[in-house]
Amino acid sequence: MSANSTAESYTCVRFYVSTVSFSVLLFFNLIINWTIVREERLRSHARFVLVFHLLVSALVHLGTSSVFYYQIHLKARPGRSACLAMITVLISSASNILLTLTAMALDRYCAVCHPMRYTSACTARRWPWLLGALTWLLALAIPLSLLLQPDSQTSRDAYHGECGPEQLRTGELQKVLFIGLCTLIILYSYVRILVESRRLGVLNRRNKAGCKTIALHGSQLAVYILPNFVSFVLSILNKRRLIERDTKELSAVVIFAFFSLAQCVAPVVYGLRKEELLEQLSHRFPCCSRYMKAVLGWTVRASWPQTHHRAR
Fold this sequence. Notes:
Distance between the termini: 70 Å
Mean pLDDT: 78
Order of helices and strands: HHHHHHHHHHHHH
Low-confidence stretches: 300-312
Structural class: mainly alpha
Shape: globular
CATH architecture: Up-down Bundle
CATH superfamily: Rhodopsin 7-helix transmembrane proteins
Helix content: over 70%
Largest sheet: none
Number of domains: 1
Number of helices: 13
Radius of gyration: 21 Å
CATH class: Mainly Alpha
Number of strands: 0
């Protein structure tokens, strides 16, 4: 198989994966985000507002990825402005996913380790939405600072009509440093939460639901964060000719599939395991909640609200 046909097949795989993931995530966005927006108790709570922003960011990223890889498959030659817009949306939405995960970790850290201050701060109902808007502004500043540099792949001199993966690789080192910083903040927050939970006696071997939640959150964060570091290492190895380009491209496709899978699992880990959200979903979408309960199984069984009580 030639290099061109291999690259085209990888592009098709990325397009199909992003399209399927976008479709699955669109369903979760409709039912979860609609429930959060319509229920005042949920939309005034930072935990659910951050879930809202996480799902929207993932939906925007996967939808733009689908368009981006489809135009590569068609060998289209979009204008520089259109290419710049797609790259900006891709980088900013991916950055906002990581920033939102960091904000969620800090939110749980404040709620567990500083409950009195957290409760007093939660009286202002608009601050979670302002926090979400702030993460979007920071995420938008990241691609603009990278793409507006003179040596960027999207500069007037470097752009020749092809909008592809080369433009996405702009500022690889800066992206890895940003991911590393967010990872350190997330790890610090969860370590402090674990220490405080053990001190209070909440987290122990008998608390299977708590241990399962920690395991799910850890695996979810690993799928989000580790692929970026692996991709960066593979790029360095390829530049030093320690691995072939085909190996690097195949690994990049697998990493993209894992990242897309993380977007589809995120509503389960961060949304559907919340008892308050499940209760409202069961009221607003009774048919969907019944099927989700059967399909999701063990991941939500521990936290699903019991609607039938045994007679004494």
